[in-house]
Protein 1
Amino acid sequence: VLAAPAILLALLLTLVLSHFLPLLLNPKAPRGSFGWPLVGETLRFLTPHASNTLGSFLEDHCSRYGRVFKSHLFCTPTVVSCDQELNHFILQNEERLFQCSYPRPIHGILGKSSMLVVLGEDHKRLRNLALALVTSTKLKPSYLGDIERIALHIVGSWHGKGGNITFCEEARKFAFSVIVKQVLGLSPEEPVTAMILEDFLTFMKGLISFPLRIPGTPYAKAVQARERISSTVKGIIEERRKADCCKRDDFLNVLLSTDELSDEEKVSFVLDSLLGGYETTSLMISMVVYFLGQSAQDLDLVKREHQGIRSTKAKEECLSSEDYKKMEYTQHVSKMMIIQYTL
């Protein structure tokens, strides 16, 4: 009976020491705070904030400690950099001076075969496949037509909603639909697409959450959602193999034609493709629309440019790559929005 409190006290002391020991062992580390034992500063870091701001956590820490500081996030001692030049230097020297990695709890959601988790030669191999995806997709004659049809489908679904549209959510649906179409060959109308989207939304909510794997928590739900997505994609792969004569024009055929990847790596690659384009693309589209809404002059010039190009096309004719090249002002606006957002 007397031993129980002693054991509990020893465990607490071990927890506190393991949490704060890196502060004592790394005197040259940047200034900062480790927060509470185990939890660290994760909860403050995860506090939602407006997309066009750094958020209260980063703003407060940058003002206190500078643009590079130490913290304790996702149960891991962490150095956080908000310095653009340093970040560029790190990315330019990846696999030479620096090695990309994620906190271990995130590995539990992404899976051990994810391109975001693997290192060295495995990472290079998967990255080359990702480049092949981008290249082969852009070369497809149907690529731009697919995007246009999906955009029209999304916009068409707004009719009858009474004008209550959350644009950022619609942009996410658009980005997801484009990726699923190019990678898996699935259209937005197919039931399996809606099923994957529902699980993927659960996955995204848990990806950036406190890593507590207890039933009912966002983290635990995300792990389960990834398993369901994995099962769904494996089912699609098996169907393709059975119907070998019915080749489809998507990147899944590229994956199926290679013997370099295991089925688990192929599933992870599909999930990585969704993860890589879903949030980034939809957020950038939303930011462009948001900032255009603040400038009536820029919005009018973009509309005129689009209407001028559209007037040269037949009613059911899709836009071509040459049409997109003519959208010089649209491209200028998009680049300026990207610069403004990343600064």
Protein 2
Amino acid sequence: MASFCSLTLILFSIFTFSTSIAHSKTLKRDVKALNEIKASLGWRVVYAWIGDDPCGDGNLPPWSGVTCSTQGDYRVVTELEVYAVSMVGPFPIAVTKLLDLTRLDLHNNKLTGPIPPQIGRLRRLRMLNLRWNKLQDVLPPEIGDLKRLTHLSLRFNNFKGEIPRELANLPELRYLYLQENRFTGRVPAELGTLQNLQHLDVGNNHLVGTIRELIRIEGGFLVLRNLYLNNNYLTGGIPAQLANLTNLEILYLSYNKISGAIPTALAHIPKLTYLYLDHNQFSGRIPDAFYKHPFLKELNIEGNTFRPGVSPVGAHKALELSDTYFLV
């Protein structure tokens, strides 16, 4: 009898909890913001956004791409994922009124214009994905106010100007994708202070400067695994200090104007797996230590002026060609 009463109490509690969620009201601020966004979108999105409440009203489900959660007596919008639906026009500024957003994904649309400075309001945002749009202008420094951000993808847009140093104010940032834009200037060395940054891709821009300038902050980039600097206008040489980035697995330097010899120290990065040095102005010879590296799978050195006559050492299939093969 006691166990029956306990089971009844549990079922009653679950029913009561479910009922309270079903009858929780969506915060008016979020309802208004989503309806503003709805009014600005094309039919591809609007046809799936039925009803007045984006979180659903009991009879109707939540709007497609909208995720809500309950906070006290209200529901709030925590995720907005509207991608690959040919959304056109400027970045919908009403998005910045959804103050409880943790995830914003508008990738693969046709958004134009700048990211508004009001983006800094989204203090709970952890993932921001705007890749494959037509966004342009400079990045607002307010993006550095998104202190909880772990993933930032702005690749394949038309952003210009310098990469803002305010990105170094994002202590949780792990993945930063800025490739395929029109950024100019230098990659901020301050990014090296991000203690959680694992992936940095600034390839295919118009960036200048040297690797030495990028890694000048002592103890920087300690957990960085992937570094993409390809297809820019970097000059200078590869400093031996780059070997201090002991967690590097991918180093992509192709299509720059980097010159000089390849330091042997680079071959002692313990986890280095892919190294792309092609189409630069390197000279000298490839240190034998590269051919003995236990993890190195690919080494691309074509399009340089390395010295002829260096015989490869080791069993790496990707390294069985002599340096003379890559002479230009």
Protein 3
Amino acid sequence: MSFIHLDDFIAGWIGGASSVVVGHPLDTVKTRLQAGNSYRNTLHCVLTIYRKETVTGFFKGMSFPLASVTVYNSLVFGFFSNTQRVISKYRYGNELQPCGMLDLTVASALTGLMSVGLGAPVDLVKIRLQMQTQTVLAANLQLAGSAAGGGGSIQLAAVGVADRRLYRGPVHCVGSILRSEGLPGLYRGAGAMVLRDVPGYTLYFIPYTVLCGLLSPDGRSSAHPASICLAGGLAGSISWVTATPADVVKSRMQADAQLHRKYTGILHCIAQSYRTEGLKVFFRGASVNAIRGFPMSATMFLTYELSLKFFRSFRRH
């Protein structure tokens, strides 16, 4: 189809890489807050990570998303832009016809649904690597304690496992999950991710489009870079804050390794989390999401739009 443009995918790839570098430290904080309960608040989490793991702790697990999220964002932005063209082509007979609000909603929701296919395994591996405060030693001590009937003190020699991380890196993590949980293991939490991303992308692309229009009242074809940053940043904050409850459930299910599984499914995770920690647990990390969503999305949209403008300048010539 002639209206499928590859430059949207390439620009999305560049935008994705820049947003990962900007947002990963706060993403690590967000994941630790949501998947665990050993932190009193955001500041305590940040200070604990820094004290125990130094600055490198904030970038734990970044190599995998840097390689994969770039592809993920490439597909998301390419799919969204091209879906709009397909809708305009069949509804109005012209792929260049701007989409209405209903068209944007459909394109956004479809993008959110599509994103789960690649995004679920990427998120799962990222979260498992970010949660590397859990060691094989600790897990085996817990299992040995259960086997011993809760007898209390267990000598290290009784377990015979060296103090090391569960996963040596992204490839080892994927291999371990496939061996212990099979292919479905890579999609653990995918249902919660659908609940997060379908409305999440709708509240990502629509606010961005609307805000860009409001910030460019002269009707220029391309918004000013400052307008793109502001619209993109606000859209990211709006999207992430509203998606926080579903994101909490997704993070908990994905961090829930098979070695000591706590949740049997989405509803069980919601019920168990509510029973043990109350309603506030579903808004854990909301402030981090709001703060992190702004620079990440501002960077994402700015580099995407500038890259797209650059590529299209060659097409015109």
